[in-house]
Fold:
Amino acid sequence: IVKYALFVIGGLVILIGAVLAYVAATFDPNQYKPQMVQAVKERTQRTLKLEGDIRLSFWPSIGAKIGKASLSERASDREFAAVEEVRVALKLMPLLSRQAVVDTVRVRGLRASIVKAKDGSTNVDDLAGPPPTKGAPAAKDAGADFKVDIAGIEITDAAVSYADAAAGTKYALSKLNFKTGRLAPGVPTGIEFSAHVNSDEPKLDLPVAVKTRLTFDPEKQTLALADLALEAKGEAAGVTNLVVKLTG
Structure:
């Protein structure tokens, strides 16, 4: 019985692998770019541009690689965010046991501009979805038992700006790099962050580097940082040749 069961399982694995290999070889997701752009336009009133190629993989992980792409501001052609390349893959077999095990997510060349208007609204409010209705009963989350495990996140050569129209301030992060280890509930993971911070008011011109260990537990709603090390050198609030080192 065991021998025949192994034959059946092996045959199924070979068959599934052959089907996935055929799909990967014959299916071209780039043919559906116009539909993707149209769907984003209808749902968000933003213009999505997919200038780079989209590549899919199906075995041993379900993954996608997206080339150069950009997204406009809502109801405008002005660019809100752009990226040079994004890679993400999801391991196939753990999905059968309701576990999403993600390989390292890689993002290169991210550019984003966040703006806060005088009325307190921001240009990302529509992407976050509508706020919950007061007094409405909380809906049961059908995927509450679905576990997510990410091997790591790597963001390289990013630039993010933030402008507050009410306060009249603007901050810019350039040469931004962000890297994590494994991200899973209750598992300590290393975090590395570095960026060049610039601002006119208050005056800032600081390269900043931060290293720490992060542990989070969604069920207990807790988050802890350990072995924190921060280092900044440059100019801040009129002080030149500033050197700041913090540990804790």
Observations:
- The chain has a mean pLDDT of 84.
- The longest helix spans residues 2-26.
- The chain is about 15% helix and 50% strand.
